[in-house]
Amino acid sequence: MGGWAIAVHGGAGVDPNLPQQRQEEAKQLLTRCLNLGISALRSNLPAIDVVELVVRELESDPLFNSGRGSALTAKGTVEMEASIMDGCGRRCGAVSGVTTVKNPVSLARLVMERSPHSYLAFSGAEEFARQQGVEVVDNEYFITEENVGMLKLAKEANTIVFDYRIPALGLETCSAVVESPIQMNGLPISVYAPETVGCVVVDSQGRCAAATSTGGLMNKMTGRIGDSPLIGAGTYACNLCGVSCTGEGEAIIRGTLAREVAAVMEYKGLGLQEAVDFVVKERLDEGKAGLIAVSSKGEVACGFNTTGMFRGCATEDGFMEVGIWD
Amino acid sequence: MGWAIALHGGAGDIAPEIPPERRQPREAALRHCLQIGVDALKAQKSPLDVVELVVRELENNPHFNAGKGSVLTTEGTVEMEACIMDGKTKKCGAVSGLTTVVNAISLARVVMEKTPHIYLAFDGAEKFAREQGLETVDPSHFITPANIERLKQFKEANRVQIDYAQPVEKDVKKEIPTGDGDSQIGTVGCVAVDNDGNLAAATSTGGFVNKMVGRIGDTPIIGAGTYANNLCAVSATGRGEAVMRGTVARDVAALMEFKGLSLKDAAACVVEERVPRDNVGLVAVSAKGEVTMPFNTTGMYRASATEDGYAEFGIWPSVENWVL
């Protein structure tokens, strides 16, 4: 075995004009999460526990688009979704339409372990959460002022605003950017909120796991489900690898992106980085997305065809890196 | 080359002793739906139109677990889901948690064609259906006496409540018998290819008897219960949790693409080696006009036809064939 490895992401598709301060905050959060994961791995926690605890941390922080800080639906509410997969036995759990559960990834894990099903949504998921006694809060808890502002902008413009973290003042000066914005999610209907979060881990026994969590698209229709809770699309883990994706949901679903990485490793015998590169290059067409992956051999890889991806990775031999750009 | 079509009405523990009054209506329905699909292909309708219209017909038939005749949730309600995929463009649409929409598969198609999204569920999907003017009815329309009875029997056979504090075994090998020889799992689906090699797949279901409210199965998950690309189109049926973790529909296509397996071998590999026994069945067609319908359950209601005039129907491993 090659030792443990971990990768985290906070979304693919970053505005090149993102204020420096935001970039720093993002890197600090990614570093903190990586360190959390690394301590857990050093304490011999299994991969499935590590991905859950790291994604919980990402959900609790309002910076990225998951848990608190989730993008808002057209109604101004938050509907969260998440999935988790354990490479051992390919057990999986997923939730969608979660509105009061503080940590959707933990609810997804409970679905996997304590229900007869693999995927629960909306009122059924909320009911299950109560049966399980998980921590619930008002929907308002997840809503940040910043996102309220962005929703308003999105509705007024009713078009894709490239990156919602540019302060409104800056919008005039970056009019060039807005006029020909780097587009994601092709249709002029909503603001693209790329910062889905995810974590993939292989522990020192070679067990892989993956988890992904998100609030979805800004100004999305109530009831819209993206790629994050879909096993094989946003999340996948088997005995060879663990994968978490982020980016344009439609492209990830059509490309069954997470499963694809594992499939080319398994059926074509590609190594991890080769598999990641192949999938990003060949499986996305015009779609924009990124992904992180680990292999049972202790390797870590990431790939994206977007402008930037918030990410961090570390391996047992001491390698550690946090980045946004290429 | 040439067109081909295959459809299913669910795989499961279909006991050989199933009484004629349960078997015959399903058999008749499948033959009828097969003919509808064949006529549509002969009339040069696109595979996407063909799979939608065949699945609509199956949804409307109360003898299958989709649309009217859907199995019931633990609360005695119906929650339907469906998915459609166009192999040429890989565009897809999916819906879950429907309670009043008469044809879930048609709503899935509208999601695919009229929204920037792929998947809508529950209240949001219902609201969208109304906005789009799709036919909706009172939820009671979908509930049949057979399913009320089925739920009752299932609950009685499972008198011990699942203890939610304990880990749950998901790879259940055998269904709990209900004594009437009737399978509790099931789904309907259709795959088709025209003679230009354009492929499409569609699947629709009421889900799993006594399922938790809000439970989503494999049917609306692209790559699990439904998939189509430029090589093949697949619609799977069986135990949703197993089909999902096995990414069944995608794997058939992946084996063809990455390992160069034929449609038949790829489908057989997935059904025999990648999903536990008694958990899955599928129908698939290839761009070349081939058909395969493997299953690892006791039976699967299925029918297929190809342009050369060959048509086939089966429930258990043996089949009946005739010339179109």
Automatic annotation (TrEMBL), chain A:
<dbReference type="InterPro" id="IPR000246">
    <property type="entry name" value="Peptidase_T2"/>
</dbReference>
<feature type="binding site">
    <location>
        <begin position="224"/>
        <end position="227"/>
    </location>
    <ligand>
        <name>substrate</name>
    </ligand>
</feature>
<keyword id="KW-0068">Autocatalytic cleavage</keyword>
<comment type="subunit">
    <text>Heterotetramer of two alpha and two beta chains arranged as a dimer of alpha/beta heterodimers.</text>
</comment>
<keyword id="KW-0378">Hydrolase</keyword>
<dbReference type="Pfam" id="PF01112">
    <property type="entry name" value="Asparaginase_2"/>
</dbReference>
<dbReference type="InterPro" id="IPR029055">
    <property type="entry name" value="Ntn_hydrolases_N"/>
</dbReference>
<feature type="binding site">
    <location>
        <begin position="246"/>
        <end position="249"/>
    </location>
    <ligand>
        <name>substrate</name>
    </ligand>
</feature>
<dbReference type="GO" id="GO:0006508">
    <property type="term" value="P:proteolysis"/>
</dbReference>
<dbReference type="GO" id="GO:0004067">
    <property type="term" value="F:asparaginase activity"/>
</dbReference>
<dbReference type="GO" id="GO:0008798">
    <property type="term" value="F:beta-aspartyl-peptidase activity"/>
</dbReference>
<protein>
    <recommendedName>
        <fullName>beta-aspartyl-peptidase</fullName>
        <ecNumber>3.4.19.5</ecNumber>
    </recommendedName>
</protein>
<keyword id="KW-0645">Protease</keyword>
<feature type="site" description="Cleavage; by autolysis">
    <location>
        <begin position="195"/>
        <end position="196"/>
    </location>
</feature>
<feature type="active site" description="Nucleophile">
    <location>
        <position position="196"/>
    </location>
</feature>
TrEMBL record, chain B:
<dbReference type="Pfam" id="PF01112">
    <property type="entry name" value="Asparaginase_2"/>
</dbReference>
<feature type="binding site">
    <location>
        <begin position="215"/>
        <end position="218"/>
    </location>
    <ligand>
        <name>substrate</name>
    </ligand>
</feature>
<dbReference type="GO" id="GO:0008798">
    <property type="term" value="F:beta-aspartyl-peptidase activity"/>
</dbReference>
<keyword id="KW-0068">Autocatalytic cleavage</keyword>
<dbReference type="InterPro" id="IPR000246">
    <property type="entry name" value="Peptidase_T2"/>
</dbReference>
<protein>
    <recommendedName>
        <fullName>beta-aspartyl-peptidase</fullName>
        <ecNumber>3.4.19.5</ecNumber>
    </recommendedName>
</protein>
<keyword id="KW-0378">Hydrolase</keyword>
<feature type="active site" description="Nucleophile">
    <location>
        <position position="187"/>
    </location>
</feature>
<comment type="subunit">
    <text>Heterotetramer of two alpha and two beta chains arranged as a dimer of alpha/beta heterodimers.</text>
</comment>
<feature type="binding site">
    <location>
        <begin position="237"/>
        <end position="240"/>
    </location>
    <ligand>
        <name>substrate</name>
    </ligand>
</feature>
<dbReference type="GO" id="GO:0004067">
    <property type="term" value="F:asparaginase activity"/>
</dbReference>
<keyword id="KW-0645">Protease</keyword>
<feature type="site" description="Cleavage; by autolysis">
    <location>
        <begin position="186"/>
        <end position="187"/>
    </location>
</feature>
<dbReference type="InterPro" id="IPR029055">
    <property type="entry name" value="Ntn_hydrolases_N"/>
</dbReference>
<dbReference type="GO" id="GO:0006508">
    <property type="term" value="P:proteolysis"/>
</dbReference>
